[in-house]
Design goal:
The chain has 756 residues and is of the alpha+beta class. It contains 19 helices and 35 strands. Strands 1-2-10-11-12-13-22-18-17-16 form a ten-stranded antiparallel sheet. It has a five-stranded antiparallel sheet with strand order 9-8-14-21-19, with no helix packed on it. A five-stranded antiparallel sheet has the order 23-30-31-32-35. Strand 26 and strand 27 form a beta hairpin. This is Glycoside hydrolase family 65 protein.
């Protein structure tokens, strides 16, 4: 653990700057608006160690796969997010010398991410002999105008004498990805236009040998300032620069606003149309004041918080954690674009390539169902439906029928370069099926599952039916050579979670096929023989079980390991993924994240209290939680078992995973899909929220460290407020038709009045 920011309910703030923590600070002060995002880089420039990162939703590049061998079916490339043209660059000179916090003496440093407003603030005072100048920066990516980035810098002279100030707003296409092969540059500049008070660059991703699309991006900057504009020669063919200068008397101050419009070829089918739209949007933004742009932005954030805020009284650490989770989650995705999805690092770093994983269906869908309109989650489901063609290719590459949705993707084609993950971690097919069920169960909306969803389910089921094999010796169906959610166990046979999801998916698909209309059934064209085969697999699927321990066995052979709890790991050797060889990890009994427990969480009402207890008591002590996705589901299961202290411990781990750098890996970006964990732990865990037969059920408890907590929840056209105090739970219908809920076994009628 490492905490470098103060604990405040609405702010991630520090008054210190340590260069060795620069990357950590950059990650935790990242901004995004769903369309684009960036790390908390210093726009004036920084010559020390830094991970500069600006990313555009859906803009990526097929990087070479780093292997010296090749096998049939192996992905042709590794898809990676492209570090965008640097449009926030804002060099500042005092008396002709550039400001650089890696070299300058400074004081009064403050770095403040305001989560309520969605604004990043930074300030410090430069001290050079008798020269003393205070600088204040403010930055936001507008959620009211998705193409808009806004920066403002204020310079105040605290010296006894006048100082010369020069500010140079710039757009620079000479950028690279830190994780890319061979230090390649991925942008070719097509056009650069440098005016006296504006500038623009149109750049296109370089050609690739894989036939994937190239992307064009356009950035245009406009400036508002009372400084004098001066002519400047364009420094090179990849950068445009404007320059503004002035002399500041003692105690005088000046400011400069930099407004940038960012557009991409994802929305425009020609360079001419893209350029015209960029100019038009820039003209439109130029009509608004800085105050108006900021007000429009913060108003949208206010509406989001009104619907989704979780309020915790009595524990500021927990309060800050859950708001940080929700802020970064919404900064990454709010459902406006069904072509986009949620990458594990979002817009905060390059790790995981910026692509889509199974995290979305397993962890993000439950949260978005609870705090946004159903259309947001439906877009996530449509994302997969629209990529069925790619899923067919993935299955065919393995010589299998049906559709195999990718482990990692931008366009539906598998683009991950770790074999043990890419084509062994096939449980993701079941997770995608489960998300369809989860959406339908929660919303009551069957329009997707009976049409597009039915197609997805049948194609996944065809894959499972081809991927299983029948063991004549055991008279059961099995699945060999897989990796479950626990990635510390590779190439195992009969992973319980994978087998269980395959069985469940086939069963659920058969149920849905019995409900679709005649036209849909005709299009799906599933024969009676296929259905009979699927039912046979359901009836005779092998699920590893140990009757003595009363546990579902993670996979064949797992119990043959030397089973010792995590507490037996010598001090100083955790996280084990940063201290042990991969071979040692694979031979150990230690679990990266929930595997059997993931499945029990998925279908938590289908297991007896005894089954949940025996499996939790066996597997949780073996779990190192070195996946960011792990603590949340364990917190829910602990709460379900009334292990309240354990539930709170694991809530703190998931809610403050990055704020406290639990796994010592936040420097390269935040764990965005794991940001769902805080909400899951509070709502499903502490409040015990379940949906059973279309009705909401709650079984709340109040953590001993908290005075109270409350949250709002969207459910079938209603907005409900749940508050839990020392005297018990309270429920309020904020909007929508009256409904009946179940609270610890008692029916409660909700109208617009407060109900206790």
């Amino acid at each position: 653990m490492k905490r470098i920011f103060e604990v405040q309910p609405w702010n991630v703030i520090t008054h210190t700057f340590d260069p060795k923590d620069k990357r950590l600070q950059e990650s935790m002060t990242s901004l995004g608006n769903g369309y684009m995002g960036m790390r908390g880089d210093f726009e004036e420039g920084y010559s020390g160690d830094s991970l500069q990162g600006i990313y555009l939703g859906g803009v990526w590049y097929p990087d070479k796969t780093r292997v010296g061998w090749w096998k049939n079916g192996y992905p042709k490339y590794f898809g990676k997010v492209v570090n965008a043209v640097n449009f926030i660059k804002l060099p500042i000179e005092i008396n002709g010398q550039a400001i650089d916090l890696a070299k300058d003496k400074f004081s009064d440093f403050t770095l403040d991410l305001d989560m309520q407003q969605g604004v990043l603030n930074r300030s410090f005072t430069i001290e050079r002999g008798d020269v003393k100048v205070a600088l204040t920066f403010q930055r936001f990516l507008s959620v009211a105008q998705q193409e808009l980035s806004v920066q403002k810098v204020t310079v105040k002279n605290l010296s006894a004498d006048s100082v010369d100030v020069t500010i140079k707003p710039s757009i620079d296409a000479d950028v690279k990805n830190e994780e890319a092969n061979y230090d390649e540059r991925f942008w070719d500049v097509l056009a650069a236009e440098q005016g006296q008070d504006s500038g623009s660059i149109i750049a296109k991703t370089t050609p690739n040998p894989f036939g994937t699309p190239q992307f064009t991006s356009g950035m245009e900057m406009r400036t508002v300032t009372d400084l004098k504009n001066v002519a400047v020669t364009q420094p090179n063919d990849k950068e445009v620069v404007n320059a503004y200068t002035g002399k500041l008397a003692p105690q005088a101050e000046t400011s400069l606003e930099k407004r940038v419009i960012v557009v991409t070829s994802r929305d425009y089918d020609s360079q001419d149309k893209l350029t015209a739209a960029m100019h038009q949007l820039s003209d439109q933004v130029a009509k608004s004041s800085y105050a108006d742009l900021l007000a429009a932005h913060t108003a949208v954030w206010a509406k989001r918080w009104e619907k989704s805020d979780v309020v915790i009284n009595g524990d500021d650490e927990s309060q800050q954690g859950i708001r940080f989770n929700l802020f970064q989650l919404f900064s990454t995705y709010y459902g406006e674009d069904s072509r986009l999805n949620i990458g594990p690092k979002g817009f905060t770093g390059e790790k995981y390539g910026g692509a889509t994983y199974w995290d979305t269906e397993a962890f993000a869908v439950p949260v978005y169902l609870g705090i946004t309109n159903p259309e947001v989650t439906r877009n996530l489901l449509m994302y997969r439906y629209k990529q069925l063609d790619g899923a067919y290719v993935n299955a065919k590459e393995q010589g299998l029928d049906g559709a195999l949705f990718p482990m990692v993707t931008f366009d539906g084609i598998e683009c991950h370069n770790e074999w043990e993950i890419t084509f062994e971690e096939i449980h993701r097919n079941g997770d995608i099926a489960f998300a369809i069920y989860n959406y339908t169960r929660y919303t009551g909306d069957t329009s997707y599952v009976l049409h597009e969803g039915a197609k997805v389910l049948t194609e996944i089921s065809k894959f499972w039916a081809d991927r299983v094999h029948f063991s004549k010796r055991n008279n059961q169906y099995m699945i060999h050579g897989v990796t479950g959610p626990d990635e510390y166990e590779n190439n195992v046979d009969n992973n319980w979670y994978t087998n269980m999801l395959a069985q469940w998916t086939l069963k659920y698909t058969l149920e849905i096929l019995g409900k679709v209309d005649k036209d849909t059934a005709k299009k799906l064209d599933i024969s009676a023989d296929e259905k009979a085969k699927w039912q046979d697999i359901v009836d005779r699927m092998y699920l590893p079980y140990d009757k003595d321990l009363n546990i579902f066995v993670q996979h064949d052979g797992f119990l043959d390991k030397d089973i010792e709890p995590v507490s037996a790991i010598p001090e100083g050797q955790r996280p084990i993924n940063q201290n042990w060889s991969w071979d040692k990890i694979l031979r150990s009994p230690y679990i990266k994240q929930g595997d059997v427990l993931q499945g029990i969480w998925d279908f938590i009402d289908d297991y007896t209290p005894e089954q949940k207890k025996s499996n939790f008591d066996f597997y949780e002590p073996l779990t190192v939680h070195e996946s960011s996705l792990s603590p949340a589901i364990h917190s829910v299961l602990a709460a379900d078992l009334h292990y309240e202290d354990k539930a709170v411990e694991l809530y703190n781990r998931t809610a403050r995973l990055d704020l406290d750098n639990y796994n010592n890996d936040t420097v390269d970006g935040l764990h965005i899909t794991a940001m769902t964990g805080g909400w899951i732990a509070v709502v499903q865990g502490f409040a015990g929220m379940r949906v059973r037969d279309g009705q909401l059920h709650y079984a709340p408890f109040l953590p001993k460290q908290w005075q109270s907590y409350s949250f709002r929840q969207v459910f079938r056209g209603r907005l409900i407020e749940v508050s839990v105090h020392a005297d018990g739970p309270h429920f309020k219908l904020i909007s929508g038709e009256p409904l009946t809920i179940d609270v610890a076994g008692e029916k409660v009628e909700l109208s617009s009045a407060v109900t206790e």
